[in-house]
Each structure stands twice: as C-alpha cells, then as structure tokens.
Amino acid sequence: MNQDTIPIVLKAFEAALKRDFPAFKDSLTPDCVMATTYPTHLPFGGESKGPEAVAEQLRRMSEPFEVLGADMREVLSQGDTVVLIYDEKVRAKATQKSVVNRAVAVTKVRDGKVASIRIFADTYAVVGTL
Question: Can you give the pTM of this predicted structure?
Fold first, then answer.
C-alpha cells in the first residue's frame, strides 16, 4: 500500500464534499480526467478533461443537492491508484428527497496530484431524487 497517495486523494475528496472548488481544482494535474456513471443526458454525467472542466463537472454534480454527510467505508491503495468506497447522503434541493449514494471513486495520482477520477455511483437512486 502506498501511503503517500492516500492523503492526496483524501484532501481532494474533502474539498469536493465542502464544495471548495478552487481547492479541488488545485489538487488536479493539468491533464486530469473525470468520468462518472451518471447518464450523459444529465448536466453532470459523462467525462471531462482538464482542471477547469473537471471542477465545473463537480460543481454541476453538486448543484442540485445538499450534502447531508459522507462516510468513508474503505480506502484501498496500490501504487498510484487509490480507491475510495464511501456513502454520501444527499438531499435533492428541488424535491427534498434524500438518498444514500453508495459510490466508489477510482483515482490515479501523479506528481503529487490527482490525475484521474472514475466515479461509480448508485445512479438509479440519485436520479430518482431529482
């Protein structure tokens, strides 16, 4: 387990939860890529490339929801890869429906920054709250 990569990813994750988009953007490499399993017809689905686009995708992902809490269930690390397994409780602002989004984020770290993020989420439950 590469302990050096874990704090880098957890710092980016914390910034994302706090909606601190400048800090999140600063944690990314210039060629960072983020992809989600959310349907591409949603404003936060699909893939984005580069710190500006990735931070914007995260902002769009956060916009419809109020984050009520998050529980990190497990953190796995091997080489430059860190996997976060977490539960994120959110409430849709428009409907006031809440859900626990059980998600996995597979990240790659390069040069002390996050180079890629692939989010596998409970898309059915999340979309059902909108």
Answer: 0.90
